[in-house]
Capsule biosynthesis protein
Amino acid sequence: MGRLFTDHPRSLGMSWASHGAGAIKIGGELIGAGVACIVHAVVPALFTQTAGKVVTRIYDHMQQRKAGAANPENWSDYEI
């Protein structure tokens, strides 16, 4: 059971709840960026930079978390 719910968050120095809250926040931002891309496909003048800015912000956030982690060498570049 621990393998499914707690091993990954613990490897990042997080609790199950804090990891879940962060994953939900990032997931919501990605869904919003996806919707902006779909709207942009229909009306190219709208949301011209939205998805790129969201992805850049999320990437920067993850890199900051990695740099501040107790074991940054064990983090991948895409760890949530």
